[in-house]
Every structure is written in C-alpha cells, then in structure tokens.
Amino acid sequence: MKTTLSVIKADIGSLAGHHTVHPDTMAVANRVLAEAKRSGVISDYYITHVGDDLELIMTHSRGTLDPKVHETAWNAFKEAAKVAKDLGLYAAGQDLLSDSFSGNVKGLGPGVAEMEFEERQSEPIAIFMADKTEPGAFNLPIYKLFADPFNTAGLVIDPALHNGFRFDVLDVYEGESVTFTTPEESYDLLALIGTTGRYVVRRVWRKQDDLLASTVSIERLNLMAGKYVGKDDPVMVVRLQHGLPALGEALEAFSFPHLVAGWMRGSHYGPLMPVSQRDARATRFDGPPRLIGLGFNVKNGKLVGPSDLFDDPAFDNARRLASDVTDYMRRHGPFMPHRLEPAEMEYTTLSLVLEKLKGRFKKEEGLTKAKHSVYTAQSSE
Ligand code: F6R
Ligand code: MG
Ligand code: MG
C-alpha cells in the first residue's frame, strides 16, 4: 500500500506583526486534524510553525491532491483564522485568498508539497520549512543536495546515486515545465534555476529507477493574487538514505546561509538562517528569512519523530555568518542589491509609490528611448 505525505501550509495571522503564530491557532488546527485522524481521513499528523506560517504535516493513503485531505487542511486553516480574528491577531486569514473551497487548496493561497510513495523498509524523510522567502529559495540547496559532489559525497561514492537525478523545473510566470538530468545537463539546469524568482525546482527523481526523491511547494501567492499579499514561504520534502542523499548531506546543503528574496515586506535579499523550532520566529527586520528542518521516519503511514534538525551547535557558524550578512545587507537600506530588482518589486507596494511619480517626468530632447526598457516609474504605461 502506498503512503502519501502532504505538507500544507498557510499564514492565517500572527501575533504582534508577522513574526510568529499564536498557540491558540495551532490548538484549533490540532483539533481539526485530530478529528480527521479519528475518522480515518488521515493516518497521522504533526503541526508546527515557522515564523507566521502554520504548517500541517499529514500522512494518509489517499494520494496527492485528495479532496478530503485538502478540505481537512482548509478547514484547519479556516478555524485557525477564526481564532486569529477573535484574538485580534495581525493579518488574520492572510493566505486564504478565497471564501470557498473547491476540490483542493491549489490556487486558494496555501502552499502544498505532497508525494505518494511505496514505503521502503525504513523511510527516513526531512521536511524543510521556510518563512519570509519564496519557493526559488530552495533552488540552490536542492541543486547542491542532488547534483553537487562537493556537498553530497554519495554522488561520487555510492553507485546507487552515481547515475544522478532528474529535475523538474517550473516557470512560474509562464506555467510551463521542463526536465533536466544531472550530471550531464547540469549547466542547462543552472542556466535556468539561477533565476530563482521565475524557475523553481518542483520535483527530483533518482534517474536509474524514477524514484521520487524530493518535492517543493511552488505556489507564488503574489502571482496568484496579482498583488502583494505576503511572501510564498515554501516547504520541501526530501527522502533520505539507502541510495538517496544521507540526512547529513541534506543538512549540509543548508550550512551556507545563501541570499534569498523575501524578508521585510517581501522586498529584500537576506540570508536564509537555519534555526531550531524554538527560534522559528521572524524578528529582526521581520527576519532574517528562517528555515527549520524536521526529521521523521514514516512507518505504515505513521509519522515517527520529529527530530529538530537545526537544533545543533554544528549550525552555529551558519547562524553567525547569517547574522553578519544580515548586518552587512541591512546597511544598504533601500538600495539594491539589498532591495529586490524592479521586476520583483512590481508585486510589492512600491508600485503604488512609483505610480504617483509618473507625472513628474519630463521628456528630454535628443534622448531616445532604450529598446529594452527595465521597469521604472514610467514604464508601466
Ligand atoms: C513579509 C511580511 C512582513 C510585512 C511587513 C509589513 O512577508 O509579511 O515583512 O510585509 O511587516 O506588513 P503590513 O503591510 O501588513 O503592515
Ligand atoms: Mg504574515
Ligand atoms: Mg510567512
């Protein structure tokens, strides 16, 4: 029998700004999921949060995009949002873009990473969840994890990994996808996924037997809503060991706190800081972008665990470097490359400010318009 792992997340409101969920909202979500477990819709679940995102980790045997499982998650978010409203929490119901549920949560606001698999004899998995960033934030670590031998020793040493992996990449602007195999097409893959705001690694398979190894939530809330409604704080599931990357190789990919888009007002580049669940609150400048990791074993559809993977002094240097980079980036204030590039800023409130400046420009005699204009205060005419 196959097991499905569904990680579904949403920001339904936060205590004192956008930095953390309130325990009462987690408690009510817990009640909804406990009832779904009792009635057999799901087999098991675990609830956590990173920053202002409520994370529902569920196992069941109903396959991906199952209406009942998605409805359960939707109801948990709706109930939690009600509590958030009653408590006067900030931005209550933020990610729930629709009033009504229709089959599954895709396009309704929540982020989803799901995979169905035949459980191996032992099925170790890691779930990575980030706040104040976007799905493309996982492009760099997922590349390191499955395609970089300097990160993942198994690519060189273990014959089961040696043939490489297949990456499924989604163009979130065009709604098109493309696959590449590594190592042979590594450069083509990198040519796309370096553009993190547009090309997102969605799934990875082991090439030799098509075993699904990883899946990432790809929802970009702002593109769905057409305006800024918060960042698309992503989740990623990775299956581990025995011919897949080891847990330590998966964690190693996050030992470098690379710069990701998001942070304050979804408008800044900052380092992705790996933290324990205890430190999963977005504080300084609404960040810096945070990442938590939980390790589980899946056995007969049950979740055994979790282990709080970054609650470890081995990641102190990554956190220190992230803090130093935070200081450095912050000193740029409103200047690029701390602030995002114009195309990404279109989905933020900056466009409202620029709109007001449009009428202030005067044509300069003798100067012609560039053929390829970048976004400026005037170019959206
Ligand atoms: C970023 C985020 C926060 C808010 C910021 C302003 O994803 O959620 O950084 O953008 O706190 O929030 P508002 O405009 O709601 O006051
Ligand atoms: Mg929020
Ligand atoms: Mg968030």
UniProtKB/TrEMBL annotation:
Give me the residues that bind dihydroxyacetone phosphate, please.
H18, K132, R265, D286
- Which annotated residues bind Mg(2+) 4? D232
Instruction: Tell me which residues bind Mg(2+) 1.
Output: D11, H18, D52, Q94
Required cofactor names: Mg(2+)
Picking any one GO molecular function of the record gives: fructose 1,6-bisphosphate 1-phosphatase activity
Q: Which annotated residues bind Mg(2+) 2?
A: D52, D53, D131, D233
Could you tell me what this protein does? Catalyzes two subsequent steps in gluconeogenesis: the aldol condensation of dihydroxyacetone phosphate (DHAP) and glyceraldehyde-3-phosphate (GA3P) to fructose-1,6-bisphosphate (FBP), and the dephosphorylation of FBP to fructose-6-phosphate (F6P).
User: Which protein is depicted?
Assistant: Fructose-1,6-bisphosphate aldolase/phosphatase
State the organism of origin. Answer: Sulfodiicoccus acidiphilus
Taxonomic classification: Archaea, Thermoproteota, Thermoprotei, Sulfolobales, Sulfolobaceae
The protein's gene is named fbp
